[in-house]
From TrEMBL:
InterPro entries: Chond_GalNAc (IPR008428), CS_glycosyltransferase (IPR051227), Nucleotide-diphossugar_trans (IPR029044). This is Hexosyltransferase. One of its GO terms (biological process) is chondroitin sulfate proteoglycan biosynthetic process. It holds the Pfam family CHGN. The gene is Csgalnact1. Its main location: Golgi. Belongs to the chondroitin N-acetylgalactosaminyltransferase family. It is found in: Golgi apparatus, Golgi stack membrane.
Length: 529
């Protein structure tokens, strides 16, 4: 039965196959036949005296069309070949750039292959970096600048507020890096070349004149060092490159912060109006958006204390918030003492402490950063906050000063990264207690935060120091009291000067009279004309 069905089906299948082949042939002829330019060529009449010439012209035109069509096809084929070759080269480069990562990281059974792959990768880093030739850049801002250095000093462009254009390489990693480079260069210069028979000049670090270096973040660091030569006006130049290795996975973990509580500790004396503004921010970001938060207020003295307590109690009632502690101290204000007392007063489980001030604005995102960058016994978090300039200067040319939320913009015209401040910090209470807390002998403004920061730096804890977009220091007029020590008073005045406005804005204030005189002259000259 099956055989009979197959015999009956076979002629139908053959017929369908023939029809399909014919259809494909017709489609191919239609697709491949070159067409005229929107017109069908007219055939000459057979008995016309110009019939022969007409047919020859048609054949010649058809031949020309076919020739052009073939040329076009050849160009397309060449383009496809070039594109295929380019894709092949890209794939080959990717394979060279990232040799089998398992060989580099995990396969200890083939050390020779892993070493060869790593060396090949490092050599490719030199080829990719801007070492042997320049690279086309889109704008003047895309260039990676060099920094120069001598045996004693580093001359740098991106200085920040805490560093100088010329300074000693105080950071240990930078100092060790430059010493290593100079020593390596000296060793390379003193290697015998095997050609010259003259007594070789023995180079030392004292022959080093200057060097320049720059880092391309994904490739490596380029060093160009200049040494004194054998005679006057002669120099030896050596170029070194420290290639960066391939990216390696170190850790992959899930982090659950659902039950991680933050205890925000605020030392305070007077300043009730500022505290009211702070509680508005705390209520919105800490209570409503985050919800895993406790507030400890350590209040010094009794002046305005009832007003502060009333603000705290009203927030507690309206927001149904009970996670707060109010501690009152009958003594002179000391920020370090207030934070230390607040931290030690906590009796619950180990908790993240956020040392805060009343003139700070934070977001819910920052609170998560606070949790994610702290780890008991391992990490403490020292965020670099964005400090506002004086709004009356920034927005002096506006009809009115914008609302606080509209002022919280990170731009060079509105503020600066407060990289010289170490007062706002997050750490677990256990780490704060184990490190010894604050130096309680420091009174008044400033100094206690740097002392604690140095304690952490001298410990085995990792200090995470980074700018954060969700932490702002709100501008307020700073008063430097006569009771401060000379060092504290100097620090206070420096902070006060930096808080007012940018260099450009301060310059506009200084030259305000000149600018107004110039505008007045232009006004008079336009009237005359």
């Amino acid at each position: 039965m099956l055989r009979r069905g197959f015999i009956l089906f076979l002629p139908r299948f053959v017929g369908l196959l023939v029809v399909a082949c014919c259809s494909m042939s017709i489609v191919y002829m239609l697709a491949c036949t070159p067409r005229g330019d929107n017109q069908q060529l007219a055939l000459p009449r057979v008995h016309s005296p110009t019939a022969k010439e007409g047919y020859e012209a048609i054949l010649q035109e058809r031949e020309e069309q076919h020739r052009n069509y073939i040329i076009s096809l050849k160009k397309q084929i060449a383009q496809l070949k070039a594109e295929l070759q380019g894709r092949t080269e890209q794939l080959k480069n990717m394979q060279n750039q990232y040799p089998d990562s398992l060989d580099l990281r995990l396969d200890h059974s083939k050390p020779e292959k892993a070493q060869a792959n790593l060396l090949a990768f490092l050599r490719s880093q030199v080829d990719k970096a801007e070492v042997h030739s320049g690279v086309k850049l889109s704008t003047e801002y895309a260039a990676v600048p060099f920094e120069s250095f001598t045996l004693q000093k580093v001359y740098q462009l991106e200085t920040g507020l805490t560093r100088h254009p010329e300074e000693k390489p105080v950071r240990k990693d930078k100092r060790d890096e430059l010493i290593e480079v100079i020593e390596l260069a000296v060793g390379s210069l003193n290697k015998p070349d095997g050609v010259s028979k003259a007594k070789p000049h023995v180079y030392t670090a004292s022959d080093f004149v200057e060097g320049i270096y720059r880092t391309e973040k994904n490739k490596g660091t380029l060093y160009e060092l200049t040494f004194k030569g054998d005679a006057k006006h002669q120099f030896k130049k050596i170029v070194l490159f420290r290639p960066f290795g391939p990216v390696m996975k170190v850790k992959n973990e899930n982090v659950n912060m659902a039950d991680t509580l933050i205890n925000v500790i605020v030392p305070l004396a007077k300043r009730a109006s500022k505290f009211r503004q702070f509680m508005q921010n705390f209520r919105e970001m800490g209570i409503q958006q985050d919800g895993r938060i406790h507030l400890t207020v350590v209040y010094f003295g009794k002046e305005q204390m009832n007003e502060v307590k009333s603000i705290l109690e009203n927030t507690s009632k309206s927001a149904n918030f009970k996670n707060f502690t109010f501690i009152q101290l009958n003594e002179e204000f000391s920020r370090g003492k207030g934070l230390d007392v607040g931290a030690r007063f906590w009796k619950g489980n180990n908790v993240v402490l956020f040392f805060c001030d009343v003139d700070i604005y934070f977001t819910a995102e920052f609170l998560n950063s606070c949790r994610l960058n702290t780890q008991p016994g391992k990490k403490v978090f020292y965020p670099v906050l964005f400090s506002q300039y004086n709004p009356s200067i920034i927005y002096g040319h506006h009809d009115s000063i914008p609302s606080l939320e509209q002022q919280l913009i990170i731009k060079k015209e509105t503020g600066f990264w407060r990289d010289f401040g170490f007062g706002m910090t997050c750490q677990y209470r256990s780490d704060f207690i184990n490190i010894g807390g604050f130096d309680l002998d420091i009174k008044g403004w400033g100094g206690e935060d740097v002392h604690l920061y140095r304690k952490y730096l001298h410990s085995n804890l990792m200090v995470i120091r980074t700018p954060v977009r969700g932490l702002f220091h709100l501008w307020h007029e700073k008063q430097c009291l006569d009771e401060l020590t000379p060092e504290q008073y100097k620090m206070c005045m420096q902070s006060k000067a930096m808080n007012e406005a940018s260099h450009g804005q301060l310059g506009m204030l200084i030259f305000k009279q000149e600018i107004e005189t110039h505008l007045q002259r232009q006004k008079w000259s336009s009237k005359k004309t």
